[in-house]
Please model this.
Amino acid sequence: MDPRAAGGNTPTQKFSNGCPGRALMVPLMRYGICVPNLAEFSDPRQVAVLARRAEEAGWDGFFVWDHVVFAYGVPETADPWVLLTVIAMATERIRLGPLVTPVARRRPGTLARQATSVDRLSGGRLVFGAGLGFTLQAEYGTWGDSAEPPVIARRLDEGLEVLARLWSGEQVDFRGEHLTVAGVTFTPTPAQRPRPPVWIGCDWPSRPPLRRAARWDGIAPMIVSPHDGSWAATPEIVTEIVAAVSGQRDGEGPFDVVITGRTPVDEPAAASETVAALAAAGATWWLEGFRPSPGEYETAQRRIEAGPPA
Model:
C-alpha cells in the first residue's frame, strides 16, 4: 500500500524547489497547541479543559508529547493515549495526536489498536506523529534496549510499515529485521481511510528524517537554538525544509510542514507577522509549544484564550 495514500479534501498550495516538475502540495495554514504529557499537563481532566477551550477559541489542533521516562528530572507523567482519549471526548472539530510517539519503543499491534480506537472515538481526527524519540538513552537505554540511532531508525521504518498494513484491515504477513507479523487481520479499521495521516518528527538539521517524511504525509521538525534551547524557526529554515522534501517526494497528495514555537499573547500583530512569514515559506501548521516548567499550564490557558495568531 502506498503510504502517501492518506488524504482528505484540504485546500492546498504549491511550493517548488526550483526543479522542473517538482512541487510540494502543502495545505493552507492551520493553528494548534502542543503540550507535554508531563508535570502540570499530566492531569487528563486539566488537559481536557485546555483542549475544549482551544476548540472554542478557534484553534485547529491539540497535540501531546509521548514520554514514558523523561531525560530531565522526574516529573509526573501521563499516558499520552489516555490524554488523547479525553481530548477526543472533550472536542468535536480539532485535530489531535501524539507529537511524536517513538514507534520503535512500542509494540506495533498495541499501538495500532490505540491509534485506531482514538481515531474512531474522535470521528476521524487523529494525526499520527512518529519519530525516534528523545533522548534515545531515556527512551530505550533505560529499558536495556539499543539506543543506537541506526538501529532505532530501522525499527521505526519497519514499525510504520506494519502500522499502515494493520490499519488497512487486510491480512498482514510481515518479516523484517526487527518485527514479525504472522497472519494478523485487524478490525475495526480507523475511521480515516486508508489510514490517519502520518507526520514524521525530527531534530533539525538532521537530514535522514526528511527522506523518511517524504514517504508519508508531513514533517514536524524540532527547530531550537543550540545556545539556550529556545524555539528558533525562521522562514529561511522552512524554505530549506520544503525544498529538501519536495526534491524527494513523488506523490501529489497534500503534505504538512508543522512548525512549533511561541508567540506573545500581548502582541497580536507581531505574532501574526511571525507566523505569516513562516506560512509564506511553506509552513502549513503553527503550533504554540509548551514545556514541563512551573507556571506553563497557566501560560497555556492565556495563550489559548487569546486565539490563534492569524
About this structure: The radius of gyration is 18 Å. Residues 29 and 284 are 4 Å apart (CA to CA). Confidence is low (pLDDT under 50) at residues 1-9.
